[in-house]
Amino acid sequence: MLSESQLQSFHEQGYLKIPQFIDGQTLARLQMETEALHEEMAQLAIEEDRVGPNSNLKNGAGIAWEEDLEAGKLRIRQLINSECVCPSIAEILESESMLSVIRQLSGEQDIIKFHSKLLMKPARDGSFTPWHQDWGYWQSYRKDPSQINCMLSIDPATLENGCVRFVAGSHKAGSIEHGTVPSASFSIGLEGDIDAYDATPVETEAGDAVFFGSLIIHGSAPNKSNQERRANTFAYDKANNTLDEENEEPLLK
């Protein structure tokens, strides 16, 4: 159960960090299951001849690749629908501990899964994530910016390996128009390099979680370190908020 001060901080700052959100046993299993996923999914994309700017695999997962790497080098930037290929992610996504926090932060009881993505941010190759609001992408198929995102750290996230930076309070300005950016993974974003905003770097230990809404401005620097910076984002929304009513996700219990 979140405290009043935690709820107040979330609504004031636009994000909330919860240390040790999952226990050590769950974290160890998550780390073990995701350790080999990069090579397995990259190899599967090759076998299915689905290596392109973005790849949809037969198992339901999708891949967005790192760009501007040396010829022949494949590095996954994002593994979309990660719950399809990682049992521990699927369990965390629907866990009572997760759904309880989402309901408290959103003020909604009827919630659905919006998406789950494994963010690889690989050592030495993890690229700059442009400044953006998640709503900049999601407004084309959702009615209201009511989504809540949880970024769960699988590895420690530091300044050196590209932890996420949040512009505290920026969600209060509402939706901001996004422009095109030179990235296949991020077709739109906000202008500026990593120093463009007065942002707070949020460093985390493995097992920590950061919850944030869809209107807060955030981004991350490249990972030039020798340390991986894996994290999974679990996004949720209130029910009946899709513009595509025929494909509404079922309610989470």
Main features:
eight-stranded antiparallel sheet, 253 residues, Jelly Rolls
Largest sheet: 8 strands, antiparallel
Looking at CATH, the homologous superfamily is: q2cbj1_9rhob like domain
CATH topology: Jelly Rolls
If strands are numbered along the chain, what order do they take across the biggest sheet?
1-12-7-14-5-4-3-2
Q: Helix- and strand-based class?
A: alpha+beta
List the total number of helices.
6
Q: Architecture, according to CATH?
A: Sandwich
Oligomer classification: single chain
CATH C-level class is Mainly Beta
Rg, Å, rounded: 17 Å
Order of helices and strands: HEHHEEEHHEEHEEEEEEEE
User: Any idea how many domains?
Assistant: 1
> DSSP strand (E) fraction?
15-25%
What is the share of helical residues?
A: 10-25%
Shape: globular
| Measured distance between first and last alpha carbons | 17 Å
**Average residue-wise pLDDT:** 92
Q: How would you portray this structure in words?
A:
The protein is 22% helix and 24% strand. The chain has six helices and 14 strands. The protein has an eight-stranded antiparallel sheet with strand order 1-12-7-14-5-4-3-2. The protein has a four-stranded antiparallel sheet with strand order 6-13-8-11, with no helix packed on it. It has a two-stranded antiparallel ribbon with strand order 9-10. A hairpin with a 7-residue loop joins strand 9 (179-180) and strand 10. The longest helix has 12 residues, at 24-35. The radius of gyration is 17 Å and the shape is globular.
